[in-house]
Design brief:
The protein has two domains: about 140 residues, Nonspecific Lipid-transfer Protein, Chain A, CATH 3.30.1050; about 250 residues, Vaccinia Virus protein VP39 (Rossmann fold), CATH 3.40.50. It is about 45% helix and about 15% strand. The strands form two sheets. The chain has a seven-stranded mixed sheet with strand order 7-6-5-8-9-11-10, with helices on one face. Strands 2-1-3-4 form a four-stranded mixed sheet. Helix 4 crosses helix 18 and helix 16 runs antiparallel to helix 18. The longest helix has 23 residues. One of its GO terms (molecular function) is methyltransferase activity. Keywords: Lipid metabolism, Methyltransferase, S-adenosyl-L-methionine, Transferase.
Length: about 450
């Protein structure tokens, strides 16, 4: 469970007092409405301000497209959005002060018009953004203690909870969709059917692809940083490999060990509850492959050199392949100065996103000439459908025993308002991320590195 932002504490706690709060809500409302009126030039938005009874129309209707609809249910929402923009909007949504029948359409409007919606920004939101970016850069050092805390917050919510929306193999990263088997990245939209096993096939396809990129073969020794719930490690073990998989999540460790035993590969899958900076000395130079799926975002800029040097230290000196996947920022907006946002505050604390071209440079800086980039892939188009599948499963399964076990582990969720906020946080994340990937505002890359002159296929 994540702490609120300090701005949310101000509004929820009434720290401004009645008079100042009314000024904030009134002024924020006027500024936001003016910005929407002048800034929405692509698409159409309908805003229902229920406290005042007013309905506003912004933009121009587009042929064949329904307008994005926002319903303001509580005047506090104006203050939240004015103070912290999208982070404030997310908090208003989680508090049920804002609603929409189609959240993704709201994010699409913002992304399509973000160059002309800068009028929403205030001095308060600008200062907050710069301050949070400075704090993440200067203080978000991802010490071993902080890294463990971040993992506990992000992944130790409940194994049962993640099971309610992930595929059966519990793969919590982007799937890869096939046009023939699954209808491709838009198969769920164009076919209008619900293939209950499509996500399972797509995740198994993704695992097979990653293992293929890593040139894995029977007898190999593999190091995985970021165990997840063991799907990739177990698949590699079934191929005849020995896997050392590393996690900071005690719940994940227990489940990986149980699943490996159930699959009969417990002697080949060794789960280490430790940080990548504390690996045993016996790991030095002993691995044929290194794999990490969507974990490096949590390393942070202060430790990325240490991370890549660890990979170099662990790999065999003449034969070794590295596969890393990560959410990234496209070059047009990549920055070393990354401010707080909904995802960074409420899901993955202190994360830092690379870009497709920045990460190879960091690798070369840390391991000059010892790891060669041999392949770079863009998996961006595959994430929106993955997120839609997760969202559908959450809606279908978030009830009954799942909720009861969550409430037992987190008594604060016995308050139905807190439970609803928790559910809405996840729905918000799925739509928020889907829009970002679908519009190319956020990317997903897969990098493959190998030792010099380690040719993957005989060609002469």
């Amino acid at each position: 469970m994540h702490d609120k932002t300090w701005q949310a504490y101000i509004i929820d706690g009434g720290l401004l007092g009645g008079y100042l709060s009314r000024i904030l809500y009134t002024y924020g409302r006027s500024r936001i409405l003016l910005a929407l009126q002048t800034g929405i030039q692509i698409g159409e938005m309908v805003l229902e301000d229920q406290p005042s009874g007013e309905i506003y129309h912004f933009g121009v209707p587009a042929a064949g497209q329904s307008p994005a609809v926002i319903k303001i249910k509580d005047k506090k929402a104006w203050g939240r959005i004015f103070l912290t923009l999208d982070l404030g909007f997310s908090e208003a949504y989680m508090k049920s002060e804002v609603d929409s029948p189609d959240l993704k359409s709201v994010f699409d409007i913002w992304l399509n018009n973000r160059q002309t919606l800068d009028g929403i920004s205030s001095i308060a939101s600008a200062v907050s953004g710069y301050f949070s970016a400075a704090m993440i850069t200067l203080c978000g050092r991802q010490s071993i203690k902080m890294a463990k805390w971040n993992v506990e917050i992000a992944y130790d919510t409940s194994n049962d909870f993640y099971r309610c929306f992930l595929s059966q193999d519990m793969m919590y990263s982007c799937a890869l969709w096939d046009g023939d088997d699954d209808g491709g990245v838009r198969g769920d939209i164009e076919r209008h059917d619900s293939d209950v096993y499509a996500l399972e096939r797509a995740q198994q396809r993704k695992i097979a692809h990653i293992l293929s990129k890593a040139r894995v073969q029977a007898g190999d020794h593999i190091l995985e940083i970021g165990s997840g719930w063991g799907a990739l490690a177990i698949s590699a073990a079934k191929m005849g490999c020995t896997v050392e998989t590393v996690t900071l999540s005690s719940q994940q460790k227990h489940m990986v060990e149980a699943r490996a035993k159930a699959e009969g590969v417990e002697k080949s899958v060794h789960v280490h509850l430790t940080d990548y900076r504390q690996l045993p000395s016996s790991f030095a130079g002993s691995f044929d492959a290194f794999i990490s799926c969507e974990m490096i975002e949590a390393v942070g800029p202060a430790h990325r050199s240490t991370y890549f040097k660890m990979i170099d230290w662990a790999l065999k000196k003449r034969r070794g392949t590295v596969v890393i996947t990560a959410t990234s920022q496209p070059e047009f907006r990549f920055s070393m100065f990354q401010s707080n946002c909904f995802a960074r505050h409420y899901h993955w604390p202190n994360t830092f996103l690379p870009s497709a071209t920045a990460l190879p440079g960091w690798v070369q800086s840390a391991t000059p000439g010892r790891l060669v980039l041999v392949n770079l892939e863009d998996h961006n188009m595959h994430y929106p459908r993955t997120l839609r599948e997760w969202n559908r499963r959450l809606e279908l399964n978030f009830h009954g025993d799942i909720v009861e076990r969550l409430q037992k582990e987190y008594p604060q969720l016995n308050d139905l308002q807190n439970l609803e906020s928790f559910r809405r946080k996840w729905k918000y994340m799925f739509a928020y991320a889907e829009a970002g990937y679908a519009k190319g505002y956020t990317s997903l890359n897969c990098w493959t590195f190998t030792r010099p002159e380690n040719i993957g296929q005989k060609c002469d």
